[in-house]
Amino acid sequence: MPIEPGVIEVEFIGIGVGRGIAIGPVAWMSPPPPEPSVAPSALRTEEELERARAAAAEVARELRRRAEAAEGTTGEVLEAQALMLEDPAVHASVAEHAARGQTAERAVFEAFDGYRELLSGMGGYLAERAADLADVAQRVIAVLSGAPAPGIPDPGHPFVLVANDLAPADTATLDLGRVLAVVTLEGGPTSHTAILAREKSLVAIVGADAAGLVEGETVIVDAARGRIVRDPSGDEIAAASARKAELEAEAMAPIAPGRLADGTPVPLLANLGDPAGAEEAVRLGAEGVGLFRTEFLFLGSDVEPSGTVQQEAYERLLAAFPGKKVVVRVLDAGADKPLAFLGVRHEENPALGLRGIRALRRAEPMLRGQLDALAVAASRTQARLEVMAPMVATVEEAAWFSALAHEAGLPVAGIMVEVPAAALLAKRLLTAVEFASIGTNDLTQYTMAADRLLGDAAELQDPWHPAVLGLVGAVGEAGAELDKPVGICGEAAADPLLAVVLVGLGATSLSMAPSALAGVRARLLRYSAAQARTIAEAALGADGAASARSAAESAADAFG
Ligand code: PEP
Ligand code: MG
C-alpha cells in the first residue's frame, strides 16, 4: 500500500473486539484477480487448454496440501474444491470456450461462471457452494496470470491478517495457529467479523483506518485500546508481551463462580446463538446461559420452524446445563435480523419499527408455538429455563408476554430492557414480570440515537456513556426495591471494568461471549460491593464515555 511521504502514521485506530493483544508481521488479504479480458488468444487452442489444465492441477495440489493440514469441515471444504477442478464436465466447458479462441484465463472464467450461476439458481446448500466455485476459478486465473492467490495469504509464518473485510467463508477457514490477529478496514462493533472474532477469541480490530499498513511490517494489535501500533519500540513490545502474558494467566486461572472480593455472588453466564456453543461455554466456566438468541437458529429459514425442529434445538441447549439457569429469548426479529417468515413489511426505519415483541404481538400463534416448544424441551431436561421478551417498551407488553409464558407452563418470565422508556418505568414493568435483563447494545443505540450497525456512529455507540449508565442504574434500583434480578446481557458485560461498574449500578448477574468470562471473573474479584458502587458513581458523574472510563479507572486504581 502506498504511503504519502512525510505523513507516515505511527498508529491506526479502529474498533477493538475483546481485550486481546498480538504482535506480528502484516500480511494483506489478496484481492481477487480482475476479470480476464475478452480479447482473442494469440495461442493455439491446444496450447491454451494445456495452460488451463496445468494451472488447474497446480491449484488442486495446493488445495489438497491445505486440506491435509486443516481439520474437520475446513478440510472437507478444501477437498471438495479440489474435486471441482477435476470434474470432467468443467473441463469440457473450458475446452468449449477455448475452442472459440478465448484465452485460458477467459475460458476458465466463463466455464466456472456458467456453473456458478447454475448452482446459485438452485438455492440452499448448492447456492452456498457457488461461492466456493467462484473462489476456485479465481485461484486458477491467478496462477494463469501470475497474480498472488486470492484470499487468506500463506506467508509461511504466523501473521496479522489485514483485509478490507472478511467473508464468512474466510473467517471460518482461518487457521488460528497462524493468524495472530485480524484487522479489517470495514465493519462495526456488531459486524459479522466482530461476532465471529469474539466467538473464536481472536484478537481483532474492525473498522480500522489502516489502509496504510505495509506488507511484512511488524505491528502491535491492541484490541483493548482499538489501536494498531506500527514499527513498535522495544519498550512497546515488552509492554505488549507483558499484557499478553497477563491475559494468558487470566485465562489459565482456576474457574470458580463469579463473585466480588467480599464474596457477593455475581453469576457469570454465557450469551449463545447456537446449542453447538454450549460445551465450550461450560468449559470456560459459564454458570448458565444469560441470553440464548433463538432468532439466530432461523435466520436462513423462509418458513416458520416446526415445533419439533424447535424442541430439538432447545433440548440440545438445555441438556448442556443440568441444574443451571438458562435464559432463552423469544424471537427477536426485525432491523438487522430479518426473519422472512414473520412477514414484516418494508420499513423506512426498521430499528424503530416492528422489532422484537412488537412483531410477535402481530404473530401471537407463532410466539405461543415457541413457548410450547420451550416448555416441552424444559420438561425433558434438568435445566432451569427462564424466558424473556426483546424490545419491550411498555407495561402492557410486559404483562402480555408474562401471561402467555405462564399459560405455557413457564413460571419465570422476564423482559429485556433495551428501550429507554422501559428503563425509565423499570419499576412498573418489573412488577409485571419475574426479572429484567438489560441489553446494552440496543439500550445504547436508542439512548444515543446512534445506529449500532453504522461504523461512522461508533463513537456514540459506547455503553460507557453516563446517559446509558444512568438508565442501567435506574433499572438496578427498581430491581433492588422489588427484590427482582436484573441481569446484563449486552456486549458491555464483557468489558471487565465496565462489568464492575454495572454491578455497582445494581446488576445481579452478567452474561457475555464465553471468551470474555475469564477476564471479567478476574476483575470482579478485585473489588467489594461498596467499592464497585464507588467506581460506578465516579463513571456516572462524568460528562462523556471516555471521561467515564477514565474516572472509573482512577477510582478503581485507588482500591489497588
Ligand atoms: C442487546 O441489544 O444488548 C442484546 C443483547 O440483544 P441483541 O444484541 O441480540 O440485539
Ligand atoms: Mg437487542
Structure summarized in a few sentences:
The chain is an alpha/beta fold and 560 residues long. The chain has helices spanning 45-69, 72-84, 88-99, 104-122, 124-145, 168-172, 192-199, 234-252, 278-283, 307-319, 357-361, 364-379, 395-407, 420-424, 426-431, 440-448, 466-482, 496-504, 517-524, 529-540, 545-558; strands at 11-13, 15-17, 21-28, 159-163, 179-184, 204-206, 218-222, 227-230, 268-272, 288-293, 325-329, 384-389, 413-417, 435-438, 486-488, 509-512. Residues 1-6 have low confidence and may be disordered.
Structure explained in plain terms:
Helix content is 46%, strand content 13%. The protein is built from 21 helices and 16 strands. The chain has helices at 45-69, 72-84, 88-99, 104-122, 124-145, 168-172, 192-199, 234-252, 278-283, 307-319, 357-361, 364-379, 395-407, 420-424, 426-431, 440-448, 466-482, 496-504, 517-524, 529-540, 545-558; strands at 11-13, 15-17, 21-28, 159-163, 179-184, 204-206, 218-222, 227-230, 268-272, 288-293, 325-329, 384-389, 413-417, 435-438, 486-488, 509-512. Strands 1-8-7-3-4-5-6-2 form an eight-stranded mixed beta sheet. It starts with 10 loop residues before the first strand and ends with a helix. The site of magnesium ion has 5 residues, from α16.
